[in-house]
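FORM 7B: Structural annotation worksheet

SECTION A. Query
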Amino acid sequence: MSESPKEVLEGYVVDIICLRHMSPSQYTEQAKEHTTSCALMGHCVESGYGLVGDNNKLMVLDPKATPWVVALLKKTDKEKGVRLQVEREENEKEMETVKVTAL
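SECTION B. Predicted structure
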């Protein structure tokens, strides 16, 4: 039996609603300024999250990541620019979050 494919993502966490209002060419700079309080607003939590890495690279997270992201955002003392590492494994042909840690 082969092991499921895995991947590790790192970047600044931004909710999907706010990502829609950002310029793709400025994702990284704007993600560094995205506030923790905004990411924890109800409609932002419901939209889900993405990570913005270097060079404006956007990685949309699966819905299973949301509770972990919210828990870490509630614990951080950072007001903006929260960086996370997300570990994902393939589950029935989709990549699913299995661990989220603050950087």
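SECTION C. Observations
The mean pLDDT is 95. Strands lie at 6-15, 49-52, 58-60, 83-91, 94-102.

SECTION D. Sign-off
Analyst initials: ____
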